[in-house]
Structure formats: structure tokens, C-alpha cells
Amino acid sequence: MAQILTQILFQEPSPIFIKVMIVMNLIISAILGISEATGKQNLEYSKFWNVNNQKQAKAKIPSKVGMIFAYSPSLIACLSFFWIFPTGGIRFFLLNSAMTIHFFKRVLEVLFVHKYSGSMALKSAVTISTSYFIASSSLIYIQHLTKGSTEPIIDLKYLGSIVFLVGIIGNFYHHFLLSKMRKKGESGYKIPKGGLFSLVICPHYLFEIVTFLGFSLISQTLFSFSSTIGTVFYLMGRSYATRKWYLSKFEDFPRSVKALIPFIF
User: Fold this and answer.
1) How many other CB atoms are there within 10 angstroms of residue 177's CB atom?
2) Residue 112: helix, strand or coil by DSSP?
3) pLDDT tens digits for 95-145?
4) Which is nearest to 47 in space by CA: 244, 182, 254, 265?
5) Can you give the pTM of this predicted structure?
6) What is the pLDDT of residues 49-108, one digit of tens each?
7) 3-state secondary structure 188-225
8) Which of 39, 109, 124, 202 has CB 3.0 to 4.6 Å from 239, enough for a Cys bridge?
9) CA angle 158–161–162, rounded 5-degree value
């Protein structure tokens, strides 16, 4: 295993803050994933956050405004890095471009695809925005620090670009299917259908993980892979909570439909 890692990861200088970020990223993601799965600390912007939580947020904002606020700082940060590090090299350019596309897509989805009917807690909007901003900025900055370091023996950046495209297209497609579930004038929730919804209730999360795997393969840093693992932890918990919510609301919800990974979880 150690030999494989040396072939696919940068032999980079390892400042203490990178080690701290890696450990904190994994611990926090695991805690958030467990909290989401148990319903104890669901972020207050989804339909199922209060299944087991009777607290009501004091400060709320429209959901669309909150999600724009959640994604915009990271998009601005990614765009600014093209100017801050103009000579980062092809790998840096591919990573920063992929992340810019990722957050630009999210903003466009909030504006034109997703349908919002309620509000979200201001605290959640701030938490999500801060988390994405720190994670995306750290990922790109640490990539910058690899400049001049020994390149991995196995170059995965172009494979990573393809994996990223598969992930972002799959994620958008299933978001689009979710947006078309309700006809004009309809309210209430339905069991999603089409695409991979016949296998898992959260295929958009599955492709989100594929997207982050694409980032990792482009970057090939230990921090980028730890970020993907952290994303897996969190989305496993969140998808488990989503499936639990559907089971509680729909008696005809098919038990064969898993949470995140077809036939497994």
C-alpha cells in the first residue's frame, strides 16, 4: 500500500498545517456524517433536518438566498486563484478549473434548477459557506505548494478530469430529475424516479463523491484524497438520513432502494 501511495502522491514538503488540516478534515467529516445519520445535528436547510430535532432556528433567510451565499464565496475564491497564481502549471490549472466549474454549476442550479419553497437557518448558511470556502481554498493552495516538488510516478490528472466530468454531469442530471418531480402548482414530496433513483435514493450524492474523486485524481495530494474520504463520510450520513426520511413518509417506498451505493448501502 505504501508503495502505491508513493507512486500516485506528490513527494511534497509537509508543513504542520497540512497535517493538521488532514486530521481535522477527517475527524470533522466523520462527526458530521454520524450526526446526520442519527438526526442529532442535521443542517437546517433540508426537508428532513428536524425529523428528530424539535428545535427551530431563530434567524432564517430564504433558502435560495442562503444557498447562493453558501456557494458564492468559494466560486469567487476559485476565480481569484487564477489571478493570484497565474503560473501554477497544467495540473494546477486543471484543478482550479474543475473546482470553478463545480461551484459555478452549483450557483446556476440554485438560480435556475432547484425549487425552493421555504427558508433555511442563517447559521446553516454561514456554516456551509465557511466550510466550502476553507476546503476549496485549502485544496487549491496546497496544490500551489506542490510546485517544484517531485511529480507522482503515475500521472492521473487527465483521468481525474474525465472522472470529474462524469461526476458533475451525473450530479446535474439527477438534480434536474428532482427539479421536475413537481408540476406547476403542486406541493408536497414524491418518491424520485428515473436515472439511478431506482437503485439509490441519493444518486446526486453518489455523483458528488465521483466529482470529488476527480478533484483528488487531478490533484494527487494527500490532502485532496483526505477531502474525498471526508466527503464520503458526510454524504453517507446524509444519504442514510434521507432514506430514513422517505421510509417514514411513504409506506410504498421500495426497500430495495439503498441510500448511496447501489445494492450495498
Assistant:
1) 17
2) helix
3) 999 999 999 999 999 999 998 877 888 888 898 899 999 999 999 999 999
4) 244
5) 0.91
6) 444 444 555 688 998 999 999 999 999 999 999 999 999 999 999 999 999 999 999 999
7) CCCCCCCHHHHCECCHHHHHHHHHHHHHHHHHCCHHHH
8) 202
9) 95
